[in-house]
Amino acid sequence: MGKVLMKGNEAIAEAAIRAGCLNYFGYPITPQNEVAEYLSRRLPEVGGVFLQGESEIAVSYMVFGAAACGARVFTTSSSPGISLMSEAISYIAAAQCPAVFVNIMRGGPGLGGILPSQADYFQATKGGGHGDYRLFVMAPAGVQEVVEMVMMAFPIAEKYRNPVMILGDGLIGQMMEPVEFPEHLKSEPSNKDAWATNGMDARGSKQRNLVRTLFLDPDELERNNLTLKAKYEQMAREDIRFVPYNTESEYQILIVSYGTMSRVVQTAIDGLKTRGIQVGLIRPQTLFPFPEKAIYEAASKESCRIVFSIELSMGQMVEDVDRSVRGRRPVRWYGKSGGDVPTPEEIMDLIQSAI
User: Fold this and answer.
1) Cα 167 from chain centroid?
2) CA distance linking residue 198 with residue 194, whole number of Å
3) Which residues contact 271 (CB under 8 A, 6 or more apart)?
4) What's the domain count of the chain?
5) Which of 23, 81, 153, 294 could disulfide-link 56, Cβ–Cβ 3.0 to 4.6 Å?
6) Contact at 8 Å (CB) between 139 and 284?
7) Predicted TM-score of the model (pTM)
8) Which of 184, 208, 238 represents a domain boundary (last residue)?
9) What is the pLDDT of residues 54-87, one digit of tens each?
10) Whole-angstrom distance, CA of residue 105 vs CA of residue 47
11) Structural domain for 200, as ranges
């Protein structure tokens, strides 16, 4: 199959099927409703399960149940819906079950608006629910990349037995771009029989598997949390992903930006070149684990004078950027959060005024 023109939300849905996920539970909320609409038709065609729950809370615990049984399962929602799912996400992380969540972000706080935003960065990367847990968080910059990230998300979730979140803004869900579904990203579920509650007869075992999150003994709870911590440290060693742009030569300004905002930044960088101004970009593809070392090294370049975090929020990723730079250079934030996206010309003017 060659490239086809698809809306982002529909491409997300088809990518999950191509990745071997045939279980989807969802509840409608804009701007991601087309995912569920598409899957309500497609999943029955391929022998899958589509179910619309009575609420996001119900959906998230359906995901927990299916994940605990070792099934590949995912759901999609948008900002307030993810808030309602956050309790179950904490449970899924504590129980070490693989599951995939897609958040097509809208503006906030509160009901906010349905236009593009990146204001859920804290929620995704710092843990929207309770307790010591982290998600593996990926941030696509376009429809092709979200397809690839969805297909990669399931084996990553299974590798770490941990929830994976794909964090896209409203533009990712609504824009249309040509996409293809890479054959090499198709995969089969791995190692579920070792831990899942999928029945002793099904796995030919006399050993009961128990998936739980309750640890009343303090030493046992500590051991579980240390196990989780070691897993997050492994993520940082093995699976940090980022894309550098225009960093191979000298530059005066370094920008850190992700998602569709980074595409605007890249256009601005190309425009600034024509004015004789060199700007580098580090685009995180994983927001957790965060590419701290890459940002530190890029900011430490002798020609670099200032680092900007440019995002569609009131300044959330800038905290991780500042922590990564470690005082080597001044760090500034620029962004919008009402739904308007800064233009390349705005970014160009911002950079010129900073030099």
Assistant:
1) 4
2) 10
3) 344, 345, 348
4) 2
5) 81
6) yes
7) 0.97
8) 238
9) 999 999 999 999 999 999 999 999 999 999 999 9
10) 30
11) 4-238
